[in-house]
Structures are given as structure tokens and as C-alpha cells.
Amino acid sequence: MPGPLSLADLSTTNDSDFVAAVGGAYEKSPWVGEVTFKKLKPSASNPIASIAVLHAAMAKIVDLADVDKKLDLINSHPDLAGKAALADSLTEESKEEQSKAGLNSLTEDELARFTKMNDAYKSKFGFVFILAVRNATKTTILKSFEARLKNTRMQEFEQCIAQIHKIAWMRLLTILEPADTGFLTCHVLDTASGKPADDMEIVLERLSGEGQLGVIGSFVTNSDGRLTSGRALTGKDFSVGVYKWTFEVGDYFAKEGAKLAGTPFLTSVPLIFGIDNPEDHYHVPLLCSPYGYSTYRGS
Ligand SMILES: NC(=O)N[C@H]1NC(=O)NC1=O
């Protein structure tokens, strides 16, 4: 399989090569790619700046389409674990997504549940149930089926289009090299003493995604509670996937002379988080005391 295409190369292709490269982001609907090319008019002097820009342009074409066209787009998708999947006639993209969610290895009982759900959904709403399943599991899919069957037709129509945009985003991420703008930073605040946590050890691991798995960096916070290197990951190393920080808070609070139990309550704090947009800045901090902690997605 060829490697990911650069945005620079995509920007200098002609219309048919452009659609061949990225048109599949929207299932069996090359019109989305065709209109996007006409709108963006990419070229060497007018390059597509990021996957996010391309995705937003494609999503806008879909959002502005009329209801029938949107309905066709929804129904262009195969059922999850449906007839096309069983007959092995899925598009490559859909096959990969459905198999990542384990839908290609269902037991007879599980298959019967999926068939029942697909039928119930279609008879209530009159279109295919859509869920971006690349990072889902059988359990989360079935739970989502159950919950969404309670919605109105309008809510489901909108939900399906939203899911289709998510599917397209993840497909574009597998096809294209992201722009070099994303990076990961961290900051540790000691909320017991109201100051940055100086000299705390932190380890970063990649748990899934492209590139080396396991430990990818060890850091020590500076007097501002930040990493001396500033960025923990940047450029190509900052890729889609699941990551884990481990904060050695026990050692830090012991060093600080904090009042600790004989067996300290917090020793290490693991923080597992996902990177969905490798072109963005993810700031993933820790606020901690010897007895509690929290985090948030910053930027
Ligand atoms: N029905 C449905 O949601 N199908 C899709 N979902 C996904 O992630 N890939 C598909 O083909």
C-alpha cells in the first residue's frame, strides 16, 4: 500500500485524481469530492492547508445538499454486519472499519442481534443506521443502536449525517499526511500548595496508533510545572492514537514534604487520552494534591 499522500501533492492533482484520492471519504458518493475540487480549486499556489480545511470543505458540500441527496448518501452505506458484509462486497474503507470493530467475527447470536437491530431501525426510520465504528466495539455499537432507536426521525437523520462526517474525517486521516501543526504539551499544578509542580517525573507512552508503541518519552517538570522541552510530541510523531501520561505524584509529594499517609494515597497517576486531530495543539495537564487529581483537554 502506498504511504499517505501529502497535502502538497493532493493540491497539484487534476480533478479525477483528486476524486480518486479522497472521494472515498464519503461512501460511494464521488460527487462530494467533485464539488469540493471545484470549490477549493487547489493548486501549487493555492494549496490545501490542512486535512481539517479539506474535511470542512467536503462536509459543507454535504450539509448544503438537499434532503434527497443526503438520504442517498446515508443509504450508500452498508449495514453494520449486514448482507454486504456477509457477502464480502464492502468497499475497502468500510471493510476495514467494520473489521476493526470486530464485526467480521460475530457469533451467531451476535449476528442475530445486529440483524434484529438493523431491521428495527430501518422499519422505524426508513434509512440505514450509521455509526462511525473504526474505534467502536460490538458492545458500544449495540448500546448506541438501542439508545438511538428511541430518537425521532429528524434527530436520527441529523445523527447519521454527523456520523458520516466523522467517518470521512477518519478516512482522510488514513489517506493524507496531516499538516505539521499539531503538538502535545503538559503542565502540572500542585493544588495542595497552589503552585506549579516542580521536578515531577512524567512518562509518555503510545498505546495504539501508528509509530512506536510503548514508552516514547520521559520528562521532568521545570519550576513552572511544564516540560523543559516545551512540547512532548510534535510533527510526524504527533499522530492519531491513544496515549498515556504517568505522573509520579507520590515521589513529588514525598519530596515536597507533604503530609502523607504511611502508605501514600496517590502514588502514580495514569492518564489515558486519545488524539483525534493530529493538526491541533493538545494541552493535557494534571491538577493534583496528595488525595485527588483532575485534567482537561486544553489547547
Ligand atoms: N452503517 C454504517 O454505519 N456503516 C459504516 N460505519 C462505518 O464506520 N463504516 C461504515 O461503512
Automatic annotation (TrEMBL):
Q: Which residues bind substrate?
A: 187, 226, 296
Q: In which pathway does it act?
A: Purine metabolism; urate degradation; (S)-allantoin from urate: step 3/3
- Domain of life of the source: Eukaryota
Q: Per the database record, which ranges form the Transthyretin/hydroxyisourate hydrolase domain? A: 184-298
| Function in brief | Catalyzes the stereoselective decarboxylation of 2-oxo-4-hydroxy-4-carboxy-5-ureidoimidazoline (OHCU) to (S)-allantoin.
Q: Which family does it belong to?
A: Belongs to the OHCU decarboxylase family.
**Under which name does UniProt file this protein?**
Parahox neighbor
User: What is the species listed in this Swiss-Prot or TrEMBL entry?
Assistant: Triparma laevis f. longispina
